[in-house]
Amino acid sequence: MKSITVAELAARENTPLIDVREAHEFAAGHVPGAVNIPMSEIGNRLEELPSEAFDVICQMGGRSARVVEALEGRGYDVTNVDGGTAEWIAEGREVEVPSA
């Protein structure tokens, strides 16, 4: 499984990012530009995944690692973000919170 750190994620440009946390977690704050497709729904929403290479993030890196393994088995070019959103926030990076 390919993986990157949050620092490497921050340096990436034009690589789609899928956040597999549940909607309420995503709404509480996420990496700017991330698209929310919860792990519990991803199997029914494969048509929404990018056709090009993309990254997957969750809170700590566990759920995203399981999703990456499953998607690799389906032929996707996908990379896990180690440390997840929690590490992104711990490093003081910008977070998007949808306005209420």
TrEMBL record:
Membrane-spanning intervals of the chain: none
Keywords: Transferase
EC number: 2.8.1.1
Gene3D superfamilies found in the cross-reference section: Rhodanese-like domain
A molecular function GO annotation: thiosulfate-cyanide sulfurtransferase activity
Domain of life: Bacteria
UniProt enzyme class: transferase
A Pfam short name: Rhodanese
Domain Rhodanese: 11-97
UniProt-listed InterPro entries: GlpE_sulfurtransferase, Rhodanese-like_dom, Rhodanese-like_dom_sf, Thiosulphate_STrfase_CS
SMART domains referenced in this protein's UniProt entry, alphabetically: RHOD (SM00450)
Protein name as it appears in the record: Thiosulfate sulfurtransferase GlpE
Organism: Microbacterium hydrocarbonoxydans
Gene name, Swiss-Prot/TrEMBL: glpE_1
